[in-house]
Design brief:
The chain is built from 7 helices and 14 strands. Strands 2-3-4-1-5-8-7-6 form an 8-stranded mixed sheet. Strands 10-9-11-14-13-12 form a 6-stranded mixed sheet, covered by helices on one side.
């Protein structure tokens, strides 16, 4: 299973799932099936590859999807359907139950115990929107916010561990928290997901930045899901052709070239073209500091645990 605090799944709430299938199917080469046991017409998106199951995941090391299939695996829908290569789940498209709800991509963090983690979220100043709820034998889901209101999900795996492929074109590549209070965010997430951020085997694939670094000051705190792409400019052309919009033109980060877009229904996400030879982004840093010592963040998390006790 994915270790606690690692992004293990993403979903998007859409008013029109069929339109979403057309958009993301052409943009990323995804194919779709109704989610296992789902009666509300949630669909899962797939790419060719070896599906990651409970038997193929290590407790200590998340799967390296880049080694599952050749880099030239078919990406168009017809090739994927006709291939004998099994399909690996990469995301979910969910019909919005209420038109007043936001159209948004949400990252879900792995946990071995959703009940215990939601209790820690409340104790640390966050809120639980949806308490831990069994999803058949797939796992247990919950939805929460941090103290500033940024929404994220939790996933306690059953038969569905999460991503079958990630960290490559057309799949989840990064999640960035845009927040107004970076110090509070450091303390909250270091407290919740200490080992995922600072453990001996930590390889974080989410970080944080001030909202105003990219967005207007009035933008509420939120997580922005990033998808990998081999050519950011070409992907932007496809987005606009399919009815999406470029929200923030490409800009450089320490982990690659990023552009923020919306799909044809208004859901925001980012496209990430990794820097040549670049690494995934380092752990969250204090604003204005070149390289914050991770021990500073660890202390902030430890102080939160002491206060809780």
């Amino acid at each position: 299973m994915y270790p606690e605090g690692v992004p293990c799944w993403i979903d998007v709430q859409l008013p029109d799932v069929e339109a979403g299938k057309r958009f993301y199917g052409e943009l990323f080469g995804w194919t779709f099936k109704v989610a296992p046991g789902d009666g509300a017409h949630e669909v899962w998106a797939y790419l060719p590859g070896i599906p990651v199951t409970s038997a193929t995941l290590s407790d200590a090391t998340p799967p390296d999807a880049s080694s599952d299939t050749p880099s030239d695996a078919p990406r168009d829908a017809s090739a994927a359907v006709s291939s004998d290569v099994p399909l690996a789940p990469v995301a979910a498209l969910v019909p919005k139950p209420d038109g007043r709800m936001p159209t948004v991509w949400t990252p879900h963090f792995a946990t071995p115990d959703a009940v215990a983690l939601t209790a820690r979220i409340r104790a640390a100043g966050g809120q639980v929107i949806t308490p831990p709820t069994p999803v058949g034998d797939l796992g247990v889901a919950a939805l929460a916010t941090d103290p500033e209101g940024a929404v994220f999900g939790l996933w306690q795996a059953g038969t569905h561990p999460g991503f079958g492929r990630r960290h490559e074109p057309g799949t989840f590549a990064w999640a960035e928290l845009y927040t107004r209070d970076t110090k509070a965010a450091n303390a909250f997430y270091a407290h919740l997901f200490h080992d995922a951020l600072f453990g001996p085997d930590a390889d974080p694939d989410f970080g944080r930045a001030a909202v105003t670094e990219v967005f207007p000051a009035e933008m509420p705190p939120h997580f922005l899901v990033h998808f990998g792409t081999e050519d950011c400019q070409a992907a932007l052309g496809v987005v606009t052709r399919l009815g999406g919009r470029v929200q923030v033109p490409p800009f450089d980060t320490s982990y690659g070239n990023v552009a923020v877009v919306t799909d044809n229904q208004g859901a925001s996400f980012a496209l990430l073209q990794r820097s040549a030879g670049g690494d995934w982004r380092e752990a969250p840093q204090e604003e204005g500091r070149e390289g914050q010592d991770p021990d500073d963040l660890r202390l902030e998390g430890d102080e939160g645990r002491e206060d809780e006790g």
